[in-house]
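Troubleshooting log. The previous run stalled partway through. Resubmitting the same three chains, unchanged.
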Amino acid sequence: MELTRRMLTEQELAVDPVVAAKLLLGCVMEVDGPEGPIGVRLVEVEAYRGGDDPASHCYRGRTPRNDVMFGPPGFLYVYFVYGMHYCANIVCLTDGVPGAVLLRAGEVVTGVESARLRRRAARSDVELAKGPAKLTTVLGLSRENNGVHLLDPASPVRLFAGDPVPPEQIHAGPRVGVATAMDRPWRFWVDDSPAVSTCRRGGRRRTRP
DNA sequence: CAGCAGATGCGCT
DNA sequence: GCGCATCTGCTGA
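Second attempt completed without errors. Output:
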């Protein structure tokens, strides 16, 4: 059993998304599953900023959809994409200044049985949360969880500190699935984790030229 | 293994 | 309408 589990503090997340991203590697997201808690240790994340980041949902200003990203740190930003998937972010920086860290992949460390039931397509346990939408599926996150506070022990979704990842184990590269801002290596992952998602080449291939 | 098309809904131009 | 911070299953080597 774990002895002392510490929740992250608002202060730790009140920093630039690039700093927060590296801090979040190794941390654990936890929800209440049907048969006990389900926990995922984060091994791959991406930093997104605001008006100066063309790849960010906040690049063109505040809208009802991205509103949570403009709020205080420590809240969950969930959005719907590609007609059938959800992606989850942890809001950072300060109230009024948009910034967030996309959760791209993790290792299921608690409630593996429940996670398997939610992801029947996974061919092995390391694939359970190997991808941003796979991760939200394992945690059961959807638009209903948009805006929940992660730093409250009574919250349905909680964020715990993990063993810090040594800097030499943190690798960086361009963000996945974005065609702009390729010069910003704001995707970070734990080098030795098998749960890091497969790196695809930059932009998605378009339909016929 | 790699590569790709289809699924599928919503926000914004 | 178009374009998505995607996943899965099918194809061919």
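Takeaways: The first helix of chain A runs from residue 10 to 13. The radius of gyration of chain A is 16 Å.
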